[in-house]
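#struct-queue
[09:14] JT: dropping the first one here, sequence first, then the structure tokens:
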Amino acid sequence: MNQLLRALLALLLACAAAQVQAEDFDYYVLSLSLAPAFCEMKAHAYRPPRQCAALTATSFRATPLTLHGLWPDRRDGRHPDCAPGRVRGGFCRLSPVPVSAQLAQALDRYMPGRADCLDRHEWAKHGTCTGLSAQTYFSAAVQLTQRAERALGPAIVANAGQTVPLETLRAELARSDPALRAATQFDCRTPRGYGRRGISMLTEVRIYFERAADGQPGRPLPLRALGRDFNSGCRAGRAYVDTP
């Protein structure tokens, strides 16, 4: 009986997720983090993220780009936000995301923030705006992350622990996946204590995609179509790639 009830509950959750009403939006932003930089930025937090305790040189080399989120966005700058307000007590107070066991396993690798219930937050705030089911939304996010890993991951690993010109990374994209080059933005920030060393650290890589007719991410969307530049805060067009 317990198994039957669990199966019925899973079905109801899946149906509810499939009936989400889509917000009006124009394109998607795939936001990918560099885990060492993320953890460096959070080093002085009162409660460091759980995912940072599991970060190793081996895990970084295996997955140099990790999934932060897949965000629906609008050309007029009004970002859709479907979350029901700030959740007291953290992301883990939100309901679990209804995805298959196989997809959950993939998310554990590509979205280590699941250890801090990031998937619940991303689904509540962004995924529910898309009109897609949780299974379809996160499947698309994982597939796009895998594409970015194949195209840019080796160059990130090769330049770990040093400063690299953004043009070097863009040249790698032009070689490995040309359609991504014009759609990729590099975001740099300076963690506490790094300013005196003149370091701007590569914290995120954002890749823009069209919204396809079925509501899912479509073709890469060139930054120039949105009036954006590939360099977001990287001093002199160079970025430091942090290591665990």
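[09:21] JT: and here's the second one, same format:
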Amino acid sequence: MDILLQVIITGLATGGVYGLIALGFVLIYKATSILNLATGAFMSLGAFVCLTVLTGAGAPFSLAFLSTLAFAFLLGLVIERVILRQLIGEPIISVIMVTIGLAFILQGLTHIIWSPDYRSFPEIFPPDPLDLGFAVVPSGLLWGFIFAVIGTIIFILIFKFSRTGIAMRATASDQQAALSMGISVRWIFALSWSFGAIAAVIGGIVIGNISGISIYMGDIGLKVLSVIILGGLDSIGGAILGGFIIGILENLAGIYLDPIFGGGVKDVAPFFILVMIIMIRPYGLFGKEIIERV
């Protein structure tokens, strides 16, 4: 078995999950121009809610999953209505700082309710890996990738073809024009936060199934920043492609560079890529370049 092919396949599976989490950032940013730094907290909170419904209520995974999605949808609506709507018209940096505070609040609530102890999901999916002949995909990554692909396709279909998606695209393009066409911009903002929360929660469940959950698992949200900046903050396709690229490069660094430097390169590789992207192409591969005349 070619080790390089194995690393690339594993990187693609990992990158698919990164891409799904990145959608949580992109969906909110496209409609509101806000970079939600509380995405990681949404991930961990959703994973704990799903685990509680699974183990505490004894519900099947399908019911626990749908219940968690409903919780995420309501969470997005409440946060936008109670907190973010009050900040309309304020400087963007102020709103971003509020999302950082929100992340710590949600992490603290998760700590209070569930404690900081590490938890693991019960066995949900068949444990057998997928043998492709030239590479083997572990069961956790395989099912995580499947969930990421299905979730991504659903979001793309909603955004491209539904009336709600068209309204979101119109709002992202020009809020004043959208208002003049009878679109409720405030409702679109609320939906954007709900969809972003759902994407983050699915990512949290997937990551939790692969490696277990804790209140700190949301730190992966910072790693996903390199994905959305590589793909472009306002590009859904860029988020997916960026996830694949970061996933592959991260795994290559772990295999080929960690032994040379004594470890740790895999963990910092996404952030090194993030710095390089900002220096060379600040708007990402598919981001919209904004030119201001002065």
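[09:30] RK: nice, looked through the second one.
[09:31] RK: The chain has a mean pLDDT of 84.
[09:31] JT: good to know. Residues 11-217 form one domain.
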